[in-house]
Amino acid sequence: MSQTRAYAAHADDQPLAPFTFERRQPRSDDVAIEILYCGVCHSDLHFARNDWGMSRYPVVPGHEIVGRVTAVGDEVSQFRVGDLVGVGCMVDSCRHCQPCRDGVEQFCLNGFTMTYGSDDRQDGSLTQGGYSDRIVVSEHFVLRMPEGIDLASAAPILCAGITTYSPLRHYGVKAGHRIGVIGMGGLGHMGVKLAKALGAEVTVFTRTEAKVEEAKRHGADHVVVSGDPAQMEDVAETFDYMLDTVPVQHDLNPYLAALKYDGTHILVGLLDSIEPAIEGFNLVFKRRVLAGSLIGGVSETQELLDLCAEQGITCDVEMIDIQDINTAYERMQKGDVRYRFVIDMQSLKKDDAA
To answer: What is the pTM of this model?
Structure first.
């Protein structure tokens, strides 16, 4: 076992604080990683505060991890000491059910093992995430950082990026398609960049005029202020897809009405019940589809990292020290980040000097 320094939530009403625990020694198929950067996802905040009623404490959040290999197990063939690698939202799955065989481990019929907050499939210990100085992960769930990619801004690609890329790829978004991206946050700004990379014509839907120029700077071809009925009427029945990144309850009906017949509205942000209710008319009379999507499989995530390196696609990040994580959570809850916090995990050493 190896001593690991981290920041953890110890209760739903307490701030994150320094924490030391033991990581396992690498198993035969494991890769040991020194963590260099870790993105801060809204899911981390939800989990720390037990918003979903499934948290067990203490919990070390963090599932957008970039680091350097420090050791490998005897059976590891794809990685060597010194390689730059990443770890996303999953660290294991059953590996034998149909979704796992299809390369969509996120839909494992037996449930994928989350990077933090899950029971390890072999020893039953609680998985702990990337707000720490090291992690040990099975080779299958380790991703290679392509040459030339900016490591810090690549961290959120492992969650925010793949969450938006996976449905674009699954539904075959390409040149000639018109897609609306609803929301201009951590997920939304990546959705714009990736849809453009696939050749689509992209329109951002935002609630405020303040985001119009911002959306265009990130590559949006058009921007619609969704609170303006006239603008919404102008785009009725014109889109092939809607990529809905909004994580809170909102009215889907106006966006469904903006889809063509056979159009697809894809939820990637909302996990709660849909309120207000969907009008059946908006689906039935145009054969529209309401769909959902969850992160992406391992091979698909590697494909995305390679695409981002090739085309110079990055996530817009604000770097922070781990000591500022509680302030970052407060700012994130207010929407005061453009567009993703990333922790420089070398900052953990500051606690030693304090």
So the answer is: 0.95
